[in-house]
């Protein structure tokens, strides 16, 4: 039973407020995410994303090739 009491003490020593290993970590993570997948958050949230790609043109080309 003494081991359980020791484990509880260890958990209390490390809180999120007490340990901050890299203060700018959130900003770095967002920057990397934007480099890997631009507008990922907007896509996930369902926001309209302006794109240089016009998907309607691709449909017209496919129809011309078939007929």
UniProtKB/TrEMBL annotation:
Lineage top rank: taxon:
Eukaryota
Q: What is the species of this protein?
A: Xylaria arbuscula
Tell me what this protein is called: Uncharacterized protein
Renumbered residue ranges of the record's region Disordered:
1-23, 48-67
Gene3D superfamilies, sorted: Nucleosome assembly protein
Q: Could you tell me where the Acidic residues compositional bias lies?
A: 1-19, 51-67
């Amino acid at each position: 039973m003494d081991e359980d009491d020791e484990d509880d003490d260890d958990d209390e020593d490390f809180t999120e407020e007490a340990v901050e290993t890299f203060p700018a970590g959130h900003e770095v993570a967002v920057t990397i995410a934007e480099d890997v997948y631009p507008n990922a958050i907007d896509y996930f949230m369902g926001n309209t994303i302006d794109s240089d790609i016009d998907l309607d043109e691709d449909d017209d080309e496919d129809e011309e090739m078939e007929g």
